[in-house]
C-alpha cells in the first residue's frame, strides 16, 4: 500500500473503493445539508470541511442544501448566517438547494407509494402511534388504519394537502414492517399536518415531509453520490435505502449514506436546542457571543478560517465519538495568529510609573517591530514620555530571585525603550500603590548601539505612554461551562455548570496606533495574548475581545499524556 493510501481516512477509502469498482469519477457529488433552525457550531465545521474538502480533492461539485421542512423552528436569519459561515470558512458551493424546492416532487412520489400500497394515512393521535411502536425486544402493533384502501388513502392525503384537516388529525406513514428489529422501519411517519408559515413557501403547504422521507430523496434529486452524516443516523440508513429503492430509476446515481463520529468539544455544548436555550435565557448575548461554540461566535472572538480548518484536519474523521479538549482549538488559533497578528502594546491593569529623571513635557517616538515572525510586516512608531503605565502585577516591592519583573531597587528593560530602575512606591491611605517612581538610563535606548543599550537585564516589560494612551473596553473570556462535559450528566441539568465568571470586562490602555482599528482586526497584545476588534466598536469607543492567551495549555496537556 502506498503512503498516499495509508493516509486516507475511512470516508476516502469508501470513495476510492467505489471508484475502483467502476463508479464514474465525474458523477461524484457531495452536499452539506444544514437545517436552518440555529447557527452553525464547531461540530458543523467538521462536516463542512469534510464535504467541501472532498469536493476540492476530487474536483467534484458540492451542494449547500437547506433541510427546511420544519417551519416551526426555521427562519431566514439562520439561512443567511449559515451561508455566511460556509463562505467565511473559505468554501464555495456548486448549487444552493432547499428541501422545499422538492415539496411537489416528494408529494408526487408519496402518491405513488400510496398507489403501490406502500403508504397509508393513519388517523390516530401521535401518542397512540408511539405506544404501538413496541420496544427493541417487542414487536410493534399494526395501526387499525393500516389496511385502508389505496383509494381512501389517496382521498385523505389529497385532502390533507388541500388543508381540510387540523394539525394532528392525520399523518401519512410508510407501510414497511411493524416487527422489524430496526424500530425506524416500523411504519415511519412521512408527512404531518402543520398549518405554519414557511420562510420560503409561505402558506402554500399545510403538510410537511419528515426528515427520513426528505433527506434521501433530496440526495437522489440532486444526484448526490455520497451522503455523509453523523453516527446517530446509522440506524436511519436502512430506511434511507428503502425509500430510495421505491423511487429509483435505472441509469441514475443512487446515493450512498455513510456515517462518521461526532467530535465533541470540552467545556461547551453543541446541541442547537441547548445553544438556543442559552440565548433565550440571556446567559449569552446572542448566537454570536464570543463564548459560544458557534462559527459566528468564534469569528467574533477572533478565530480565523485557517485555524478552524486546521483544527478539523487535526482531529480528523473517525468512527467513534471522542471528547476533544478545547485547548487543541486554542492551540490552532494561537499557532495561526502567531504568524500573522501584528504586535502592539496595551496595559489592562495599570499602575503609573513616573520616570523622575526624564525631562518633563518631552516625548519621543521609538521604533517597534510589528511582527518578528513576518519579515515583511515592517515597523511602527510608539510614543515614550515621562509617565507610562505598566501592568500592576509586573511590580513588587519585594520579590525573590525568580521574579524577573520590576521590584524596588531592581532594573527591567521597557520594550523598545530604556532600562529603568524602581526607586520608590507611592501609596494611598489604604496602602494601595498608586505610583512607582523610577529612574532611567538615557544611554540604554534599544537599538541605539551604545554599550549601555547592550547591557543585559533579565526582565522586559510592555508599557504605554500615559499621555498618548487610547482607552478601550476589554472583554476577557473564560470557559462557558465549569465542567468538561456539561451535558454528560444524566441526573443534572447542563445549566448547573454555567461558569458565572466566563466574562470579565475591564478598561485597557493601548498604544495610539490602535486608535483607528477596524472590526475584526487581530493583534497580539505583547505578553498578554491575542485580541480582536469587536463589532461593538465605533463612535469613539473601542472594544476588544480576548481570543486566546499566549500560554500553550494544549502542549502542557500533551506532555502529561
Report on the structure:
The protein is an alpha/beta fold and 561 residues long. Helices cover 26% and strands 24% of the residues. It contains 14 helices and 29 strands. A seven-stranded mixed beta sheet has the order 12-27-28-29-25-26-13. Strands 23-20-21-22-14-17-24 form a seven-stranded mixed beta sheet, with no helix packed on it. Strands 4-5-6-7 form a four-stranded antiparallel beta sheet. A hairpin with a 5-residue loop joins β21 and β22. α3 crosses α12, α8 packs across α9 and α12 packs across α13. The protein is elongated. The N terminus is likely disordered.
Put the structure in a nutshell.
This protein is α/β, with parallel strands linked by helices and 561 residues long. The protein has 14 helices and 29 strands. The model is unreliable at 1-5 (pLDDT under 50).
Strand arrangement, major sheet = 12-27-28-29-25-26-13
Helix content: 25-40%
Number of strands: 29
From the N-terminal CA to the C-terminal CA, the straight-line distance is 31 Å
Determine the strand fraction and express it as a percent band: 15-25%
Number of distinct helices: 14
**Helix/strand structural class:** alpha/beta
Taking all Cα atoms into account, the compactness measure Rg is 31 Å
Low-confidence runs = 1-5
Shape estimate: elongated
Q: What average pLDDT do the residues reach?
A: 95
* Main sheet attributes: strand count, strand direction, barrel closure: 7 strands, mixed
Question: What secondary-structure arrangement, pairings included, does this model have?
Answer:
Layout: H1 3-6, H2 10-20, E1 30-32, H3 42-58, E2 62-66, H4 76-88, E3 96-98, H5 103-115, E4 119-122, H6 126-131, H7 150-162, E5 171-174, E6 189-193, E7 207-209, H8 211-222, E8 226-230, H9 237-245, E9 256-260, E10 263-265, H10 272-280, H11 295-301, H12 305-315, E11 322-324, H13 326-340, E12 343-344, E13 346-347, E14 350-355, E15 363-369, E16 379-385, E17 387-391, E18 395-396, E19 406-407, E20 411-414, E21 419-427, E22 433-440, E23 460-461, E24 464-465, E25 470-477, E26 503-510, E27 522-525, E28 529-533, E29 543-548, H14 553-560
Parallel strand pairs: 1-2, 2-3, 8-9, 10-11, 12-27, 14-22, 18-19, 20-23, 25-29
Antiparallel strand pairs: 4-5, 5-6, 6-7, 13-26, 14-17, 15-16, 17-24, 20-21, 21-22, 25-26, 27-28, 28-29
Helix pairs in contact: 3-12, 8-9, 12-13, 13-14
